[in-house]
Amino acid sequence: MSTTVPEMYGSLVFNDRVMRDKLPKDIYKALRKTIDTNTHLELDVANAVAIAMKEWAVDNGATHFTHWFQPMTGVTAEKHDSFITPLEGGEVIMEFSGKELVKGEPDASSFPSGGLRATFEARGYTAWDPTSPAFIKDGTLYIPTAFCSYSGEALDKKTPLLRSMEALNREATKVLHILGNTEVNSVTTTVGPEQEYFLVEKETFQKRRDLVFTGRTLLGAMPPKGQEMEDHYFGTLKPKVAAFMHDLDEELWKLGIPAKTKHNEVAPSQHELAPVFDTTNVAVDHNQLTMDVMRKVAEKHGFVCLLHEKPFEGINGSGKHNNWSMITDTGINLLDPGKTPTENIQFLVFLMAVIKAVDKYADLMRLSVASAGNDHRLGANEAPPAIISIFLGDELTAVLDSIENDTFFGKQKNVQMEIGASVLPHFTKDTTDRNRTSPFAFTGNKFEFRSLGSSLSVSGPNVVLNTAVADALSDFYEVLKDTDPEKMDETVHELLKNTIKEHKRVVFNGNGYTDEWVAEAEKRGLYNYKSTPDVLPVFIQDKNVTLFTKHHIFTKSEIESRYEILLENYSKTIHIEAKTMLDMVSHQFMPALVKTMDELLTVATKKKDFDAALSSKAEKALLEKLSTAYDAIYDAMQVLEEDTLKAESMSDELELAKFYQATILEDMSKLRALADEAEKMIPKGILPYPDYADMLFYV
Ligand code: ADP
Ligand code: MG
């Protein structure tokens, strides 16, 4: 008998249902309190939870446990310990203690720390995050944890995220209370990340060194057919792909990941998966897990799942849309316009906080999505531009206009609320979602941040978003806190009006792909950071250090260490790409050219031997072309090689990153253009690796 989806769903998760079922009542209550209100967990409670968790895990086939964490590498890390404890007489029992559940001590010395370990202790520890449920994967109980140094410095992506959620909770609740909504005890942020990816056949993948070493192709001429027909988008799923997706859904459901939508994307072999949204922290963990499971299930189906932002030149890359909102513990989505005037006002206050946050910290938003891979997309007319702006749609923009011009609340100030009350229209998705060129779009009851790259942990962008909005809300609170309740409406109105005036420059409803917008944005004073090395230094600017330290998200040294890691990571990525490209060109591509020329020469010679009168015009012409290309490629290779050596001798990290961006990438692109042109003259079968057509149109 086959299992139904509801039976399957969450079957490998130590979720609330299991907890209630397996834990003594008082223990369940204590744990629930820790989860809901973020209070300290007593050791005796932890011990009881550990016992229940282990029993449940062992019943479900687990033999090991691991503290699962998210170091600055961007991927997750785990070290597996078995539950066994040997007894005298050669037997074992399965044991797991509260201490082991709550705290782990992985050897931290090999994870990137950006200098934090030089100044602090070399050791780090992992701490259980009870707000994200434990689960079983491949016979191991996974315990989501935060990763810190012994002096408490964050070494991971979860710790700052939890801190930023706490900051937003604090500031949002204060504002709600002063607005009179005193029933609310807490506010959390919610995220639904839509994930794009490519599938290529495993055999093809393994023959491409560039895919193996860098995740993207560094060479390759476009096939006669690319994505110009747009026949792949939402197209019928090929059986092999459908089978993969079916399996993927099931694996994700078992892990309690609410995979909801799947479809083909614009590019050939490109697909998308979207889950139902969740609390940010859980959504981040789930997205990391989703990427993991995608790779694993792909493998089983003879595929490799490519999560790189730009695996194929000339073909759309992959991104990730971060749908984001805020929800109260009373169940109100604060970005839902609501139905009553009071709800409308509350919505407008939170909406304006987001607008202010994004305008003020657009540089950090851009920073949060910056990576070597994503640089190939942003600003390239297939993904949002590098300029961060907000799309609100005409209706909502009109509402803001009328607030700014005093027409929304009615002309007479003292009756503003009553008339005011001109209840907001209900924004349907249709009117808000049409503009696909905007990096940050209001889509009816949430914002969609569309600049993320496909391989990125969604943690960073949400840290920035949560913190920046918390900051705007804290500014709002300062304005509102001493207001006479009688005058609250008026003060709120003034606040909205002033905020609109000051920050409306970030609102843009037009086409973000045009040159006019670039010029217009510059006039408006908006940031336009084109590449990762351009934007990274904003991290350590005073304005931004102040933001993060004020809300206790990062200490100054945590920021500096992260800045260093990001720079290093960028340079290393391009360094590996340059080396891989040189390797492929010299060991695979050039020999293929030589072989092509050799075959032509053989034919020409044979012709002549057979009958001297037979002309070899075509062979000569082709040989000449090939020979010219060969020389040019050789020269371009020399340049790349010399510049790569130059880079190896540079020591200033920022200067180095800039050199990689401005010089090495340029060298690579010149070399590629020459090679791709020459590739068209090489007969099928001579190149020792699959070409674009083989990779993209495999079924
Ligand atoms: P689509 O873009 O596929 O038409 P939606 O716009 O409804 O569908 O949803 C896209 C993503 O946004 C989904 O992952 C969905 O769960 C998520 N989402 C919907 N509401 C919220 C919310 N309040 N907070 C965060 N994410 C949300
Ligand atoms: Mg979307």
How is this structure best described in words?
- Helix 7 (158-178) runs parallel beside helix 17, helix 13 (362-368) runs antiparallel to helix 17 (459-480) and helix 22 packs parallel to helix 24.
- By secondary structure, the protein is α+β, with helices and mostly antiparallel strands.
- The chain folds into 3 domains: 5-156, Ubiquitin-like (UB roll); 164-412 and 426-554, 2-Layer Sandwich (Creatine Kinase, Chain A, domain 2); 570-696, Four Helix Bundle (Hemerythrin (Met), subunit A), CATH 1.20.120.1560.
- Helix content is 50%, strand content 13%.
- Residues 410-422 have low confidence and may be disordered.
- It contains 25 helices and 17 strands.
- Adenosine-5'-diphosphate binds next to strand 9, strand 11 and strand 14.
